[in-house]
Amino acid sequence: MKALRKFLDKKKPLFEKGGKFAKLQSTFDAFDTFLFVPDHTSKTGTHIKDAIDLKRTMSVVVMALIPSLLFGMYNIGYQHFLSVGETAPLMDMFVYGLIKVLPIVVVSYVVGLGIEFAFAQMRGHAVNEGFLVSGMLIPLVMPVEAPLWMVAVSTAFAVVIGKEVFGGTGMNIWNPALIARAFFFFAYPSKMSGDAVWIAEKADTFSGATPLADAAALVDATPAQAESLMSGALSQTWDMFIGLIPGSIGETSTLAILIGAVILIATGIGSWRIMLSVFVGGYAMGAIFNLIGANPYMELIPAWQHLIMGGFAFGAVFMATDPVSATQTTRGKYIYGFLIGFLAVLIRVMNAGFPEAMMLAILFMNTFAPLIDHYVVQGNVKRRLKRVKVKA
Amino acid sequence: MSEVKKIKKGLDIKLIGKAEKVLEKADRSETYAIKPTDFPGLTPKLKVKVDAEVKAGSPLFFDKYSPEINFASPVSGKVIAVNRGERRKILEVVVQADAEIQYEEFKKADPNGLSREEVKEELLKSGLWAFIRQRPYDVIAKPEDTPKAIFVSAFDSAPLAADVDFLVEGEAEAFQAGIDALAKLTDGKVHLNINPNLNQAKMFSEVKNATVNKFAGVHPAGNVGVQIHHIDPINKGETAWVVRPQEVVFIGRLFQKGIYDVSRKIALCGSEVKTPCYFETITGASVRNILKGKLKDDEKIRVVSGNVLTGKHIPEDGFIGMYDSQITVIPEGDKFEFLGWAMPGLSKFSMSKSFFSWLTPNKKYRLDANLNGEHRAYVVSGEYEKVLPMDVLPVHLIKSILVEDIDQMEQLGIYEVAPEDFALCEFVCTSKIDVQDIVRQGIDLMIKEMS
């Protein structure tokens, strides 16, 4: 490693001000600090620092996403072979999924990081680690049949409009990965709806409807239709929990997502407050619908089932918890999370046009996060003022 | 018996090198210095020139804006240097000590029999006033104020902190006299805050003329700012004064003996010290003789006057800070680490459990001064809240300081905080933001705007 360090130290002046490649300073710096934690020591303030940095934080989140990614790959293969009616060994399913998913991951990272580097260079900033996570989240919320160029355009849109225009990582107001998905959803709706996009090379004869689509169909169903729908994919709750259902690449397996959640909570990096309150909010709305029971969807889908369908769990664990776009105050986190879960189920059931409402609910609450924080901050200010008045 | 306030938010950082309660002899330091930079916001005016002869208690300089506040020489001898920095800012006034210390004579008296004005005058004249600090702002107290209360924290919870009981052992009478003097200065109470888990000395638990409060829990339980927040928080327009136990003893000695005697024990600690222990010395002493032969010499080191969270980096022949009772020596750590952010990290300490060192909760660490990363914008939220046991929203306060919004700073509690209360926030910060510096900037701005 000493040789590598020596090499980097020798090349460093070329990239510094006045050097031949000064324009690539951020790029060099990004690689240098990736390979070596720099020798910077504290100049003022505390003389010792916690070992954690943003690279560590982000890599823990990526690690927490790995179960979902791996399971997603397997499930892509599983769904494909199921639809064409073949049986295949586990490894074949996984490799099939790997071949399908890997290009999407690569496109997301190459496009996103390319833009990040370019912006950092333009501004003369260090390259921020934020995209390491976004770059993994984007493929996981894409349908497997998403054309690569669409993934590229969505990613570019998310990084430029979702993040860089606000000043980069830490400054954005919406979750960049969800911006990518929202862009995709509204720009290329045909590629993110219907039954065909969720299963790779689906046989036409195979229905392959997602449980969410089936549930949405319940709204105007006659009792007989409702019964047949309820005995289809919707009755396979165990499959839904494990994740053997069609859906976006990484969102199907509640189990894999929960493993990720455990990693995030145990390391203290993800906010358990947000995760918990999203689930509570979703359950609460589901329970209210159960009580109202105005149509078969409200009546027949138990509240807890909302939590394992579609992107609910994935959104709760990985999307809502993005610390930059979420609320920042402790109390605010409970309110923010609860409203996300509440709204997601509300939109899901009330608006058949948006069966996957989690994305919209989170983006909507991202928008309102500063407002929630504002009220929490005002609460703190009021307590302080009250103290003075009590004395006076 | 008052109830124990348990501080739950915070963090005990376990480091290698806690000082053994043994008093070792070191060669007497030859030079002593008072550093105006130890007093935030001070504009010093010199009273002596180089080569002047001074006694212990003779003023070396005073506060330009409160000329009655003097800063006295800790020993007798000759002023040998006035070291200046950029724009001729005075950094150190150095005194070469005589073999035998000559003291300026002040009035001996029982403080109980004196009036407030007399106590004040003695403290100002002798230079001991500089040890009385105020909240808000964490600066030297203004003599014209009458504080609503005076707070003394009788324990220190900082990493490797000196044992306060050991520091003032055998000084019970001087301590009580000091408390008596302080009691004269306020219409309210003198609060003495102890930790019931430390089995503290009777001079604290059975103190007269003061109210004993009990605090337990993790650092910053021993920070006086945190204690004030839980006992009697500071509102706009109020002031409270704070003094540390050793300094209470100095005040007591003034009234008992009529001299400016600022000799104190200090702890020499840290992972780079061979045998961490205590030394008898005098405030402002050069650390050269104390460190001589005591350090492990395997790598570049950093000497800190004070603790690793709030102390100042001093050279190996530098001087102990005015308010410090410990010297901590840690490795400098100015080295690159290959893929350091990706390693399991068994020897890395983190509040988060993202390093596997959380498997060994009682392990003591040898931490260096490396930043362990780079400066970034705020990304992670909720970190500061875990280590700040106050009803203050730390990140919002920091941001209001950064945009210099005076009203917002006031509303969010700038009067209640001192940089040291935010030291742990700075330690745990993933984005490596200089939180203490920012808080100090905010305080400086408030002082400027409010005066």
How would you sum up this structure, described in words?
Chain B: Pfam families: NQRA_2nd, NQRA_N, NQRA_SLBB. Chain B: Residues 266-313 form the Na(+)-translocating NADH-quinone reductase subunit A C-terminal domain. Chain B: Residues 114-258 form the NqrA second alpha/beta domain. The complex is a heterodimer of chains A (392) and B (451). With 392 residues, chain A is mainly α. Chain A contains 17 helices and 1 strand. Chain B is α/β, with parallel strands linked by helices and 451 residues long. Chain B folds into 2 domains: 4-257, no CATH class; 384-450, no CATH class. Chain B is built from 11 helices and 21 strands. Chain B has helices spanning 116-126, 164-167, 172-185, 202-205, 224-231, 245-257, 288-291, 394-402, 406-411, 423-428, 435-450, and strands spanning 4-7, 23-24, 31-34, 44-46, 53-54, 59-63, 70-72, 77-84, 90-97, 133-135, 139-140, 149-153, 189-194, 211-217, 240-242, 263-269, 277-282, 301-305, 312-314, 326-331, 337-338. A 7-stranded mixed sheet of chain B has the order 1-14-13-12-15-10-11. The longest helix of chain B is centred in the last third of the chain and has 16 residues, at 435-450. Chain B starts with a strand and ends with a helix. Classes of the chains: A mainly alpha (392), B alpha/beta (451). Chains A and B meet through strand 1, helix 3 and helix 17 of A and strand 21, helix 10 and helix 11 of B. Strand 1 (36-37) of chain A pairs antiparallel with strand 21 (337-338) of chain B.
